[in-house]
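Record type: monomer structure entry
Structure origin: computed from sequence
Chain ID: A
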Amino acid sequence: MKEIVKYSRCFVCGDENSHGLKAKFLFDGKQATTCITADDAYEGYHGIYHGGIIATLLDEVMIKAILAGDIYAVTAEMTVRYHRPVAVGDKLNFAGRVTRCKGKIYFTEGEVTGDDGAKYASATGKYIEAKPELAARLAESLD
């Protein structure tokens, strides 16, 4: 497994963002993965992890699956389905993969499960390969 490149100030994967999640993303040749523990700093309701943070992590794990192939893309569309609430303290396993590519459009899917295999949420996404000027800007920001 190889670590996927990151921007050190990114809210999700940056290790220099004091308010961020500091998630480390790995790629096994087929999918991107990360594991985190639901922290109370990101509660939506007392003891319940915020659904927006789950969506953010799903977006990141799906786009990291594209970035692992040295392709710079941006999110065009994403659909999230929540299956059950996440309690603060739950350990979460995220996985994202490219399901197909049509020209410069990448279709992805992702899910988040607990250590017991229970599914918390799933997502599909559509990402568009960045135009050269934007791709160069994105590449410059990576560590």
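Annotation 1: The chain has a mean pLDDT of 97.
Annotation 2: The beta strands are 2-3, 26-27, 32-37, 43-45, 48-49, 73-82, 91-102, 105-114, 119-129.
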